[in-house]
Design brief:
12 strands; alpha/beta; 12% strand; single chain; six-stranded parallel sheet; 324 residues; globular; 13 helices; two-stranded antiparallel sheet
Length: 324
Amino acid sequence: MQSKRKDEHIAEALNQEVKMNDFDNISFMHHALPKYDLKDISLKTMYLNSEFNYPFYINAMTGGSKKAKEINRKLSKLANEFGLMMVLGSQSIAIKDGSYADTFSVARQENPNGYIVANLSANATVSEAKKAIQMIDANALSIHINSVQELIMVEGDIEFKHWKENIREIVQNIDVPVIVKEVGFGLSSVTINELKDIGVKYFDVSGKGGTNFASIENQRGGNLPFLEDWGISTVNALIDNKNVTDAEVFASGGIRHALDVVKALVLGAKAVGLSKFFLELSEYSYDLAKVELELFIQNIKKIMVLLSVDTTQKLREVPYIIKK
């Protein structure tokens, strides 16, 4: 049943089309005389106390089915070749049934020295968190919080008040960084500050504007269509968290192309996660996926030339205009 649900999520995510979102309301002043050549641009950056080649990463998608295993295999090969962080999909299914563990551990097999992030829901116990980390020899753990999705999902959980204490226990009892992530409905500064109080330092705001899990769960049999517009957009979540201190804020949700990556970095994200972009790449041959990813990287650099910045750190100093 859970394995079938994983494949349904993949299919629905690929079918969703995102044409416009709040990233379209952000624009930059054009500098007609750039300061740098394309070869001068560096995309190297630091987050999670580690250095990465690029300021974006493969965000959580899947695991727990044969199709999911092949997706994770191909994407982990890309992560290995390009030096990208990779966040796996929720490992809850493999914690409950060990026969699904290889659909996740394949990522470590294909990327033995890479930065791989385990993933569980806020229902997880410390013991389950340790098992998920051990399953893939993870460098970090992502805890996803998804109350909207759960309330719409036919088989979803409806108990939430233990989440905060679960997260506190996990943060205090495991020895890898813990990232708390939404699944497309956004993290406000109020939520992030509340989580900071229990020791969380890393956050993926994962706002509205991309894959809509409210819509997906309604397609799967839910009956709350009025919640499909619920949440904070990624842009608004980043702006709301611009002054949050002693925390690293990542961005995902509605990142469609290189310009959205740059806009998210300008708005304060330390790094940017993409799911659908990489899910679509997983449908290509490996060689074609490499070509598309190299083009994506070059496009980020070209935009930085237009903004007259040579490092991703300087992007946070770029002024922007919010369209009315």
